[in-house]
C-alpha cells in the first residue's frame, strides 16, 4: 500500500519569494514580498555581494518581476476564495518538503 499527501495553497497564501545564496561560504537569504517587490533587489547577494540575477550576460530579475506582476493581477482579478467570482477555486499544489535522511 502507498500513501500520498498533497499540499495546496491559495493565491492569498503566497506572501513572499525566498532567494538563497548559492555561495557555499555565505548562506544568506533574501525574502521578497510579492506585494512590494523592488526591481534591482536581486542584482547581488545582500551579504557576500556575489552576482545573483545575471545569467549569460542578461538578468532574470525582469522575468521574476513579470511573474510577480502577473500573480498580483490574477489575485486582484479573482479576489479571495470567499468572494471568488469565477465558477472554480484556484489552488496551487506545492511539493512536499524533503525529509531528512537518517
Task: Give a written overview of the molecule.
There is one protein chain. The protein is α+β, with helices and mostly antiparallel strands. It has one domain. The protein contains 1 helix and 6 strands; from the N terminus they run βββββαβ. It has one helix at 61-78, and strands at 7-9, 16-20, 29-33, 54-55, 58-59, 92-94. A two-stranded antiparallel ribbon has the order 1-6. Strands 2-3 form a two-stranded antiparallel sheet. A two-stranded antiparallel ribbon has the order 4-5. Strand 2 and strand 3 (29-33) form a beta hairpin. The two termini are 23 Å apart.
Largest sheet features: 2 strands, antiparallel
Q: Total number of helical segments?
A: 1
| Strand order, largest beta sheet | 1-6
Please, what is the average pLDDT?
84
Structural class category: alpha+beta
> Would you count the extended β strands for me?
6
Strand content: 15-25%
N-to-C series of helices and strands: EEEEEHE
Could you list some keywords that capture this structure?
single chain; 102 residues; alpha+beta; two-stranded antiparallel sheet; 1 helix; 6 strands; flat
